[in-house]
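Supplementary notes for students who missed Thursday's class. We covered one full example, reproduced here. Read the sequence, then the structure, then the short commentary at the end.
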Amino acid sequence: MSWRPRVSFSVIAAASVCFCDPAFAQSRSSDNAVTQAEDAFGFSVGRESLGIYNAGYARGFSPVSAGNLRINGLYFDQAYNLSGTILGATSVKVGLSAQGYPFAAPSGIYDQTLRTPADKGGASFVGNFDSNGTWGAEIDGSLPVNGNLSLGYGVNATRTGFADGTSNWVHTVSLIGRWRPASGIEIMPFWSLTDDFDDEAGTFYVPAGKFLPQTARPDHNEGPEWSDFRYTGLNTGLLASARLSQNTVLKLGAFRSVNDIKTSFTNLLASEQPDGSGERLLFADPPLKSWSNSGELRLSHSIPDGPRLHVFHLSVRERNARREFGGGDFLDLGPGRIGVDVTVPRPAGFNFSEPSHDRVKQTTVGLAYDGRWKNVGEISFGVSKAHFRKDTVLPGVPVASARSQPWLYNGTAAANVGKSVVVYAGYARGLEESGTAPPNAANRNQPLPVILTQQKDAGVRITLSKSVKAVAGVFDLSRPYFGFDSANIFRQVGTVRSRGAEFSLSGSVTPKLNIVAGAVFIDGKVTRIAGVPGVIGDRPVGLSPHQLSLNANWNSPVKGLELDTTVINRAPAASTTDNLVFIPAKWRWDVGGHYHFKLAKRDATLRLQVFNLTGKTGWGIAGSGIYTSLPGRSLQGYLAVDF
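Structure (token representation):
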């Protein structure tokens, strides 16, 4: 199923008024990432996902950390992620797939489509479980009020068991409306609240030398029982659109995102020796609240010209955000060892200090053009002026202010070479965030500075058959690089240039077999800033030289039974800034299936999957020189029933 809007030239302005995609307003029993994905660059629907990229990784960087998020195509800055009860699907847009998105950004675009209320009443129940102890239930549906107004809702309650032996309880409530008061006008307000509690803090492992650490067995949490997270996440907003004339559309997206952390802990087994012994350290943080108000107002005007279409966009994007950090307390829990639980009682209180915070205000005004010539090609470009200010407030220290007013621009051209081949090339320059310092840094959790990035890419898309297409591309990204200096401060230590190639093959290779296969090969190179103390390696931390992914879904001869498999390979990657330690290559093989049937005359699907069939674990990188354990074998699944 294709879910990216594809419309004829003559009706593009009128059709773009609607934010909805009817496919995401209906059943949950039909969720299947393999049959619904357009390419292998990153896609999720419901509880299923696939692809070589995701929200935290695209072409070696993070779209989320960079601030390249969209809701239904409009700019969104998140303090807390959108919940599954309100999301229809998500996708990573890079290369040719990003064309059609005005003001494309380096590091890729992570677009999120809301679950739109349907015109007909209905609901779905999803019960999920896994062998780690997870069990939960979700109900979502639509309630039409009249021909112009419908309401959508979602409720989720889940106890999640994680592979490292920790667990949490979470419940989410979401509401969304769809109101069409007049022809050509649509208004969609939404509200989603997530409440997380008894969320046990897992352990990070920090070796004493240049070696990989031992980690605890996958199903066992060794940290203190009382070191639990407790937080609420809120996302609320409004999507609105109006057709001002036959070829002119005004769109508005206004969003508020809040992450309200009540309690927070970080457990470390620091200075870990090869035998698994080390020092148990714990960081406790005071209540910290971060929020962001963001959005975009976009006016689009199209000019049909026979086989050609010209579309102009005038956009104003706004961000006003406040993020708190610091003020934590540190506890030395004494010597520890892998396999030995921490039984230290909870202190009577913590010696918290006043938190720090930063405040970001950014306004970006831009003009973009998208030209399309049927069966010939497309060309698009955009130019924006950003007005950025960031004030960092540390207790007892004068306010540090940073201001920037860069010009940002992007351009893409695509040409049809015959009926089945499209070639493209593009360039983008963006202003992006850099994330926060990792848990083992002297400046842990401190927001990193905003940076300028640039990207060049080119490639080809080939339609191999009516239902199968291949994409091959090359890219060249450069941006500042952050790592540890000799004082253990996480800061800019150089620049990184990532040059690579990516591939995607997707579609129905036979009437019964769908595949989505992808690969990315990256040559990441760090250039050190002169005078930075410490050893800086030439390979970026956590960047694998290649990642391969194959997903296949087979509609078997047994009525209602579809079988699927996933194979993923990741190359070794540097795990320390000095490049003296690498995590080894990792293979993962999953097998599973969907069984579609009738339950009390209702459409139902039972989904079962064996994750990581071989059971081999490994190391995850949480920052330079800080590790987590990857999950072993598990059985997971869900039952979806449509009403």
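Commentary. The radius of gyration is 25 Å. Confidence is low (pLDDT under 50) at residues 1-17. If anything here is unclear, bring it to office hours.
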